[in-house]
Specification:
Elements: H1 3-41, E1 47-53, E2 56-63, E3 65-67, E4 72-73, E5 80-81, H2 87-99, H3 125-129, H4 149-158, H5 173-187, H6 191-200, E6 223-227, E7 232-237, H7 239-242, E8 259-260, H8 262-273, H9 280-286, E9 291-292, E10 299-301, E11 306-309, E12 315-322, E13 327-333, E14 338-344, H10 355-364, H11 377-387, H12 396-404, H13 411-422, H14 430-441, H15 446-458, H16 462-474, H17 481-490
Antiparallel strand pairs: 1-2, 1-14, 3-4, 5-8, 6-7, 9-10, 10-11, 11-12, 12-13, 13-14
Helix pairs in contact: 2-5, 2-6, 11-12, 13-14, 14-15, 15-16, 16-17
TPR repeats: 446-479
Main location: membrane
Domain Beta-lactamase-related: 45-353
């Protein structure tokens, strides 16, 4: 047997040996991930997950409902709002214009807008892309309120900078809305049409878009939230129902609210990997870690992506996003050739943000088994209150710790629950006990003492209210002083 034939023979034998092993390993990984997500589904989890390893899809599956009323389940073809995962598409559109020779990332925004004031005249496209323009994260209004492009630009230019351009990273959606205005001005196209022509169509992403969607609305996932006042889950509807029907969507565009599926996002990953939409050197520019996102410098912002290192010292390129109901996470372990894409239409709590990262731990540690996502903390709390008298309030933290597998550390939860109950209770009951419990758990929070004072006032318990407001002021809550002084005058 000559050497070349021998090499082919051994390669074939190796393939036959390793392939069943690989299939077995992938099946085991599928089962572990699926078990985690199914167990979370029993607690209200709803969404879709796609996991790919070495170019092979290990899992692509939906859990829970896209539309509860009509019993439409989530599936890999369900269309979700992907939140700020949108920013990578806006950044890619800018880089496509760079490739076309129409702009440079070093260009100043004053090049494109003559009305740019002096304090913002030196802001560059690079600074917008990396959130280092100095613009405030409060610039712009509520995402689903109407605002024309002219109105947004006026607000942007009249706003007060929080830092000198280029000196500090501060994540602000207005940066990416401004980038969108530049895309439209330079290309002569609408944001949606430019992305469709140069990003979505070349990537064969047939179920992705901003407001112009060319698929059945039955494929759109409804967003669900727990209404604390009504003490029940409610259907928010779809993002398409909330976006302005006209072109006055300039608090939303470019920074979020693109719609897509895990299938399409995976196609996007392949298009990036194979340099279909951006040249390889452009992709390197996009994925360069330009500026630290935190003091510990564990994550850096690139162009529409966040860059970090795994514990194995491999590169992670990722971005997540949310509108408060939907949450999406797109994680690429580029050195390991592993991709995790996760989208949910029910935000149960902080654990809803960790799904992709938990799956990542499972992929790289065969012994790791995450706990299922817990039920919504407000739903659990009301469940406890319905089955217990308010005299049992002290037992609530123990109940929550058991259900959530975690210590109860959030000052705001009981405060919100207390105000929800305060609207309904004419006599002292759960509301008052929740406020009392909260100051017992977090005695150094002046705002909580203020809330307790407000509850005492409702029930004409003025002496107790004075004590609570006094404590609030002592702890630095100056907004309590006015009410306290008025109460003292009546004494």
């Amino acid at each position: 047997m000559n050497s070349s034939i021998k090499a082919l023979f051994f390669a074939f034998i190796t393939f036959l040996t390793l392939n069943p092993f690989s299939q077995s390993t992938n099946k085991e990984l599928f089962n572990r991930i699926d078990t985690y997500l199914k167990s979370s589904e029993t607690n209200g989890f709803s969404g879709v997950v796609l996991v790919s390893k070495k170019g092979k899809i290990i899992l692509s599956k939906g859990y829970g409902w896209a539309d509860r009323k009509n019993k439409i389940p989530n599936s890999p073809s369900t269309v979700f709002n992907i939140g700020s995962v949108t920013k990578q598409f806006t950044a890619s559109a800018i880089l496509k214009l760079v490739e076309q020779g129409k702009i440079k990332t070093s260009d100043k925004i004053s090049t494109y807008f003559a009305q740019t004031p002096i304090d913002k005249s030196d802001i560059t496209i690079h600074q917008l892309l990396t959130h280092t323009s100095g613009i405030s994260n409060r610039t712009g209004g509520f995402r689903y309120d109407e605002a024309s492009k002219e109105q947004f630009l006026k607000e942007f230019f009249e706003s007060e900078l929080q830092s000198k351009p280029g000196t500090k990273h501060q994540y602000a959606n207005a940066n990416y809305i401004m980038l969108t205005a530049i895309i439209e001005r330079v290309s002569g196209q609408t944001y949606n049409s430019f992305l469709n022509d140069f990003l979505f169509v070349p990537s064969q992403m047939n179920s992705t878009g901003y407001k112009s969607v060319n698929f059945s609305t039955e494929r759109l996932a409804h967003g669900y939230y727990y209404n604390r006042n009504d003490e029940q889950w409610e259907d928010w509807g779809t993002t398409q129902e909330h976006l302005p029907y006209n072109d006055k969507h300039w608090y939303s565009i470019g920074k979020g609210d693109i719609h897509s599926t895990v299938e399409d996002l995976y196609k996007w990953n392949i298009a990036l990997k194979n340099n279909v939409v951006l040249a390889s050197n452009t992709k390197l520019v996009q994925e360069t870690p330009y500026v630290a996102e935190n003091d510990k410098k564990t994550s850096f912002y690139a162009y529409g992506w966040a860059i970090s290192q795994s514990k194995r010292d491999t590169k992670i390129v990722a971005h997540n996003g949310s509108n408060g109901l939907y949450f999406a996470d797109f994680v690429r372990f580029v050195d390991d050739d592993v991709v995790i894409i996760y989208i949910t239409n029910v935000f149960l709590g902080p654990e809803s943000e960790y799904v992709a990262r938990e799956i990542g731990k499972m992929i790289f540690d065969s012994n790791y088994t995450p706990s299922p996502i817990s039920r919504n903390i407000y739903e659990l709390s009301f469940e406890f209150m319905k089955t217990n008298p308010s005299s049992n309030a002290a037992k609530l933290p123990v109940f929550l710790k058991k259900k959530l597998n975690n210590e109860f550390k959030d000052h705001a939860i009981l405060n919100r629950l207390g105000f929800s109950r305060l609207k309904k209770e004419d006599k002292p009951d759960w509301a008052l006990e929740l406020f009392k419990l909260n100051v017992k758990l977090f005695p150094k929070d002046g705002n909580l003492w203020d809330s307790l004072g407000e509850a005492y006032l409702k029930y004409n318990m003025n002496d107790e209210a004075i004590k609570s407001y006094t404590k609030a002021v002592e702890l630095g809550n100056e907004s309590s002083r006015k009410v306290l002084n008025e109460l003292l005058k009546k004494e």
